[in-house]
Write a structure and sequence with these properties.
- By secondary structure, the chain is α+β, with helices and mostly antiparallel strands.
- Helices cover 64% and strands 10% of the residues.
- It is built from 10 helices and 6 strands; from the N terminus they run H-E-H-E-H-E-E-H-E-H-H-E-H-H-H-H.
- It has helices at 7-31, 38-41, 56-67, 98-103, 119-147, 150-174, 180-210, 216-248, 254-272, 274-281, and strands spanning 35-36, 43-49, 71-75, 81-86, 110-117, 177-178.
- The strands form 2 sheets. Strands 3-4-2-5 form a 4-stranded antiparallel β-sheet.
- The protein is elongated.
Length: 300
């Protein structure tokens, strides 16, 4: 059973486990990379109108069998109207037209729009997405530096890096498609994890000022215990909503929901382990929050 007395041991074990997972994630990313979706690699986008009785799963299964490649099928809004995304062939003549493939599958086939997204556009989106994550981390670093002493700020920032690396490693290891929807969820996870880190850091700072004689390890344990119920309730209710999206949202929201689900769990975990271990290793103490001494005047 985890109590306030043995919390330090569990925090250290959790931090060690997080470090191992981060190393595995970095190795997987370096050797395998990410399976970028059509948002980043480019491809064909076709908007069609089919029989209203057809479902997204039926259309996707039929086209994936005919094209021998993954196909994204998203409802466009009106019943029977769909947006199809699939990789472009090396030469347009090497692949049959979508209308030809759908003629025997649907009684009504109407092509509304067909466009080609080139790899240069996809590369630009990938660069902009990476830049967005980098800028987000830099802005967060600036905010944490102003609000907290650098030891607390470093712990919160490392917890955010942990969450990002873990999620990227998960997508690299599983080979799941990494697209703009997943990138949006990744940015949302950063904000969620930051909120948890700020709450625990604020609590540590308050306890430092109120208990100047206690060691930082004991203060970390007390901070976690005092915020644990709030953290579990907040994370639990959010996980219920994200889990509903995961189960009922269908294929278009699958990547978003699984990213949010894993990110919330990882963010809660890293807040209680990684974010608290850095202040402990750097020997954060009440003296670091003591007011600066007033300057001594030389005037008699």
């Amino acid at each position: 059973m985890i109590t306030i007395k043995n919390m330090t041991k569990w925090r250290h074990i959790g931090t060690l486990l997080s470090c191992v997972v981060m190393l595995i994630s970095i190795f997987t990313l370096a050797t395998k990379g990410l399976n970028y979706g059509l948002d980043f690699t480019g491809g064909m986008i076709s908007e069609v109108r089919l029989d209203k009785t057809l479902t997204a799963k039926e259309i996707q299964s039929h086209l994936e069998t005919a094209l021998n490649q993954p196909v994204s099928v998203v409802e466009a809004g009106d019943p029977g109207q769909w947006v199809l995304r699939y990789a472009a062939p090396e030469t347009l003549s090497a692949q049959p037209e979508i209308k030809t493939l759908l003629n025997g599958f649907s009684d009504n086939v109407e092509m509304l729009n067909v466009s080609l997204v080139g790899p240069q556009v996809g590369q630009e989106l990938a660069e902009q997405g990476g830049l967005a994550v980098l800028i987000t981390l830099l802005v967060i670093l600036g905010y944490l530096s102003m609000r907290f002493e650098w030891r607390l700020a470093s712990g919160a920032l490392l917890a955010l890096v942990h969450d990002v690396v873990l999620l990227l490693g998960f997508f690299s290891f599983t080979g799941m498609e990494f697209n703009l929807t997943v990138l949006a969820a990744l940015l949302a996870v950063l904000g969620y994890s930051l909120n948890d880190s700020i709450i625990i850091s604020d609590r540590i700072r308050e306890l430092l000022k109120a208990n100047v004689s206690l060691p930082i390890a004991e203060l970390n344990n007390r901070a976690i215990v005092s915020t644990l119920s709030r953290t579990l309730i907040t994370s639990g209710t959010t996980l219920i909503s994200v889990g509903s999206l995961w189960l009922l949202g269908g294929e278009p929201l699958y990547g978003f929901s699984i990213t949010m689900f894993i990110g919330i769990v990882a963010g809660t975990w890293s807040t209680m382990t990684v974010a608290t271990i850095i202040p402990e290793l750097t020997h954060l103490g009440p003296q670091h929050y003591a007011p600066a001494p007033a300057p001594v005047s030389d005037t008699p």
